[in-house]
TrEMBL record:
SMART domains: S_TKc. It comes from Clitoria ternatea. One of its GO terms (biological process) is cell surface receptor signaling pathway. Residues 401-688 form the Protein kinase domain. GO terms for molecular function: ATP binding; calcium ion binding; polysaccharide binding; protein serine/threonine kinase activity. The chain crosses the membrane at residues 329-350. InterPro entries: EGF, EGF_Ca-bd_CS, Kinase-like_dom_sf, NOTCH1_EGF-like, Prot_kinase_dom, Protein_kinase_ATP_BS, Ser/Thr_kinase_AS, WAK-like. This is Uncharacterized protein. ATP binds at residue 430. Keywords: ATP-binding, Disulfide bond, EGF-like domain, Glycoprotein, Kinase, Membrane, Nucleotide-binding, Serine/threonine-protein kinase, Signal, Transferase, Transmembrane, Transmembrane helix. The lineage of its organism: Eukaryota, Viridiplantae, Streptophyta, Embryophyta, Tracheophyta. The keyword Nucleotide-binding applies.
Length: 737
């Protein structure tokens, strides 16, 4: 086999699209989401898109969850006031009463013009009040109208109504359940009797939360309320099944939670596993049953109760003797049954074990294990550190893939922390993709060659692949463990005390640039990373940067400088030129790197759904700030002092060049690395260069701005672009993690 030729083909793309090792104690939480507005808590995934609150931290998961906080006191969703948000999937608002008073009056028809949130079917009723009145609820969806309603009669006899006060019996007042999935609703009320001798003079119809309305005969004359509380359902995503959601980068259910779905609503909800509590979109935490009052333990005494992760155990001192005859017999029979059961199970397991060994062999062969062994023994010296692990070893290392050892969850797989018997700590990545064509040998070989090449990348700032396991259906990859988590978490986690100095940031940028430059030019075959982002840069104890996640990377065939590919990447980091042309070049990495540098400079997320439109895309916002000479306003202020002002300015200029729309005008990673090195050394330079830099900056900015406008003349162009691209392309839409 021609080893190189094979390696040149698409990477892991098919065989192992494993998103990277978020190889560390990544806080799955997005801390800081504890906002309240007035008295209403705003739990994530909801967020507040109010520019008076800094965008970071207040981001919602999706645009539809973006609320506003008026005057710091009233939480609003469009025209509607939000009364309460239940993290379990519902929220309360106030909705209007449809009203018809007097002979010639026309009824108003309140309209909740949204197809995003259906009216909750189990928490509301449609209520109609009046005499000979009918009220109905329409839901208009996809051009079709769905209706429900009820009608009242009074027979013109006042006493009948007196009898029904307090209850909605159909006389003077009727109520009806609301069918599921009603969105985009209007309510209307009509009177069907042409007669003047009816009781009262008004007719009403409205939706009200359970128990928020009590009928009273007075209401036939005047209902004091113009609005009633209404419960709406919310779910994450739209038209997506749990199965599909779970393998996506933007999967919303965090640690110790699961995806919940039923066909009465589109999208999905997250729920904590039994034994856990909290906000499943952030982090479910263990319930201490032994001291909890809501979920009490059932041990005989509190002293016997021991809390465990997700559960509890009871172990009390033995009760001892004194069993009567009946108990003994029962125990005897029980023991017999148990023994029978155990021996049957044992036989079964022996049989299974044999099958398992066979299966392992099959997977080993399928996954190209023999080819790999050949390659390794063919004398590739540099692969000496590369190891083939058995399934048993990795199972042991991760305590049978214990959920509590999960340190990262990407779109393509799960990463566990593992403890090898030789005391090494590793990160083990388990891919989720099951190949469609199990027998595609060629594909297997690509995967194997892939693994070998990656294992040979030996760079201080690239996460090291230590080995893999081929005995399982889906290959497992073993990486070095990087202790401090992702750069993204460090920049954007509010309480992570990201007070790391400018020098460290500069070093991280420079190390990352060095690694990318190595991949682009120095590695034996050029590699385009294709998903450069702060979440793919890990930090070790000394804040040394390690580039990770080659799940989307591509080798560039020698003598070729661009590749036509399916556009893939992460929103906010994605090279706009690549997006338009689908031509992948190493300059796409340069663009993404530019965005990472801007993150380091500003401390802001690359993309935020909330906030003013022109600030959603960080790169664009940064460039326009530069252009308008507001650079120092977008910087994270605490990194700035007189001494490093010049360096910061130069780095900002460099980032602006990386972010040019025209890839050819961007510097190469090698040039970027050299410049960053230069800036690092220049630290103690005299301050006199500043004027020159300013001059240069004006020139550069002029260029940058003209190129921005080449592709459209308003800033909204950027956003529209995002919309249509999200619809068309497999982009990891991850606003963050
Ligand atoms: C979840 O929250 C608990 C307590 O706040 C914390 O100890 C734990 O580390 C968090 N887990 C994750 C995965 O963030
Ligand atoms: C969130 O806010 C609530 C109410 O203001 C408070 O009780 C709770 O401790 C806060 N949680 C965190 C993690 O700050
Ligand atoms: C904001 O609230 C304060 C106090 O409730 C009130 O005086 C002020 O008029 C409000 N401003 C607006 C714009 O509603
Ligand atoms: C609300 O009303 C529905 C239908 O009448 C009923 O099934 C449900 O239990 C009620 N829920 C509450 C919280 O009262
Ligand atoms: C909502 O209803 C209006 C008319 O009542 C209709 O024009 C509109 O298309 C509906 N929206 C959706 C998303 O169906
Ligand atoms: C009501 O009925 C009377 C006769 O019974 C008729 O003259 C009148 O036009 C009707 N009014 C309406 C609004 O239909
Ligand atoms: C309902 O509407 C009709 C027609 O507008 C009006 O005559 C009547 O007084 C209203 N009230 C009741 C209780 O029917
Ligand atoms: C309706 O109005 C009455 C009188 O103002 C008030 O007591 C009641 O709480 C209101 N009901 C709701 C659900 O707002
Ligand atoms: C779907 O979810 C709703 C709301 O949680 C629940 O009331 C209903 O019973 C569920 N339906 C099914 C079929 O599980
Ligand atoms: C005690 O709780 C455990 C777990 O919740 C349950 O499996 C067991 O049946 C309970 N025992 C009794 C006596 O209720
Ligand atoms: C994770 O969260 C905990 C508590 O919220 C905090 O103490 C810790 O520093 C965080 N770790 C990282 C890597 O952000």
């Amino acid at each position: 086999m021609d080893y190189f030729k094979l390696s040149l083909v698409l990477i892991v793309g098919l065989a192992l699209k494993v998103s990277v090792a978020a190889t560390a104690e990544t806080n799955q939480t997005l801390p800081g989401y504890n906002y309240t507005c007035g008295n209403v808590a705003v739990p994530y995934p909801f967020g507040i898109g109010d520019s008076s609150r800094p965008g970071r931290g207040a981001c919602s998961l999706e645009p539809k969850f973006s609320l506003t906080c008026n005057n710091e006191s009233q939480l609003r969703w469009g025209d509607f006031e939000v009364l309460h948000i239940d993290p379990q999937g519902q929220w309360d608002t106030l909705f209007f009463v449809s009203k018809l008073c007097g002979q010639d009056a026309k009824s108003n028809a309140p309209w909740l013009r949204s197809s995003t949130f259906p009216v909750s079917s189990d928490k509301n009723q449609l209520i109609t009040v009046g005499c000979d009145t009918y009220g109905y609820l329409d839901s208009v969806y996809d051009g079709n109208t769905y209706s429900t309603g009820c009608l009242t009669r009074c027979y013109g006899h006042y006493p009948n109504i007196i009898g029904s006060v307090g209850e909605c019996t159909g006389i003077g007042c009727c109520e009806v359940k609301i069918p599921p999935s009603m969105t985009n609703i209007t309510i209307q009320v009509y009177n069907f009797r042409n007669s003047t001798n009816l009781v009262g003079n008004c007719n009403y119809s409205f939706i009200a939360k359970n128990d928020s309305y009590k009928f009273d005969e007075q209401h036939l004359w005047d209902l004091p309320n113009e609005t009633f509380p209404l419960v709406l359902d919310w779910t994450v995503g739209e038209d997506i099944t749990c199965k599909d959601a779970e393998i996506r980068d933007d999967y919303a259910c965090k640690s110790n939670s699961y995806c919940d779905q039923n066909n009465t609503y589109s999208g999905y909800r997250c729920r904590c596993h039994d034994g856990y509590e909290g906000n499943p979109y952030l982090n479910c935490t263990d319930i201490d049953e032994c001291s909890s009052k809501d979920k009490p333990h059932n041990c005989t005494s509190p002293d016997c109760c021991h809390n465990t992760d997700g559960s509890f155990t009871c172990s009390c001192p033995k009760e001892g003797e004194g069993l009567d005859m009946v108990t003994k017999v029962v125990i005897g029979v029980g023991a017999g049954i148990v023994i029978l059961f155990v021996s049957t199970t044992l036989l079964y397991f022996i049989h299974q074990k044999r099958k398992l060994v066979k299966l392992k062999e099959k997977y080993f062969r399928q996954n190209g294990g023999f080819t790999l062994l050949q390659q390794l023994s063919a004398g590739e010296n540099s692969s000496q550190a590369f190891q083939i692990f058995t399934a048993e070893q990795l199972k042991q290392a991760t305590n049978n893939f214990d959920e509590s050892l999960i340190i990262g969850r990407g779109g393509y797989g799960t990463v566990f922390k593992g403890f090898l018997t030789d005391n090494r700590i590793v990160a083990i990545k388990k891919s989720k993709i099951v190949q469609e064509n199990q027998n595609d040998e060629n594909q297997k070989e690509q995967f194997i060659n892939e693994v070998i090449v990656l294992s040979q990348i030996n760079h201080r700032n690239v996460v090291k692949l230590l080995g893999c396991c081929l005995e399982t259906e889906i290959p497992l990859l073993v990486y070095e463990f990087v202790s401090k988590g992702t750069l993204f978490d460090f920049i954007h986690t509010e309480n992570s005390a990201w007070n790391v100095t400018w020098e460290t940031r500069l070093r991280i940028a420079s190390e990352t640039a060095g690694a990318l430059s190595y991949l682009h030019s120095a590695a034996s075959i050029p590699i385009i990373h294709r998903d450069v982002k702060s979440a793919n840069i890990l930090l070790d104890d000394t804040y040394t940067a390690k580039v990770s996640d080659f799940g989307a990377s591509r080798f560039v065939p020698l003598g070729q400088s661009e590749l036509a590919t399916m556009v893939q990447g992460t929103i906010g980091y994605l090279d706009p030129e690549y997006m338009q042309t689908s031509q992948l070049t190493e300059k796409s990495d340069v663009y993404s790197f530019g965005v990472v540098v801007v993150e380091l400079l500003t401390g802001k997320k690359p993309f935020c759904f909330d906030g003013p439109e022109d600030e959603r895309n960080l790169a664009m916002h940064f460039l326009s700030s530069l252009r308008e000479d507001h650079l120092f306003e977008v910087l994270q202020f605490d990194i700035l002092d007189e001494e490093n002002k010049q360096g910061i300015m130069e780095v900002a200029m460099l980032a602006a060049r990386c972010l040019r729309l025209n890839g050819e005008e961007r510097p190469t990673m090698k040039e970027v690395t050299m410049e960053l090195e230069g800036i690092k050394l220049m630290k103690n330079h005299p301050w006199t260069n500043a004027d020159q830099i300013l001059e240069e900056s004006q020139y550069l900015l002029h260029e940058a701005s003209s190129s921005i406008y080449e592709h459209g003349d308003s800033s909204s162009h950027q956003y529209t672009g995002y919309d249509s691209i999200r619809d068309r392309l497999p982009i990891t839409l991850d606003d963050g993690r």
